[in-house]
Amino acid sequence: MAVRSVDILIRARDEASRKFGRIGRSTQNLRGNFMSLGRSLVGAFGLTFGLYTLVRGLKAVITEAVQFEKQIASVSTMLNESSMKYLPAYREQIARLATEFGQTTETLTRGLYDILSAQISAAEATEVLLVATKAAIGGMTDTATSTKALIRVLRAYDLEATRAADVSDLLFKIVEKGVIRYEELADHIGTVAPSA
């Protein structure tokens, strides 16, 4: 009887081991299935997030392009039929200056608009814009502000556009030696220059 009890116990233990083994394998399979599901969900989330980011990026690029075209259209209002041929060169230079000097297309087109509005010839406008952009970087301001100061001095002293670099150097020296910021100089140079 003792042998029989031991035999039953061994069989019960073997059967329990097999059952627990199956339970363990089932648990491992279930764990693997959950991990696979988790990876799938993470992948789906990643894909969704990636598509969302892509769409937002495209929207931003399209919005920026539309704004740039509106800015260029504004500049074109300062051109007549014969000077309209400069518009493609303006578009190209503004894009290049924005990249090279870190100025926005908005401030660059505003500067160009003001240059043309001040009756500086369409042919010389790109050179004056380049000078104003460099002045903006040196004066830690934006191109629209440096353009305003530059044009005010050119007009006040009836100087040719070819003197823009000289005027820019002078304005920078005033900012450098005085206790004045470029923005303040641009705002007040128009009232001071004619009386000097």
TrEMBL record:
Residues 97-196 form the Phage tail tape measure protein domain. Pfam families: PhageMin_Tail. This is Phage tail tape measure protein domain-containing protein. It comes from marine sediment metagenome. The lineage of its organism: unclassified sequences, metagenomes, ecological metagenomes.
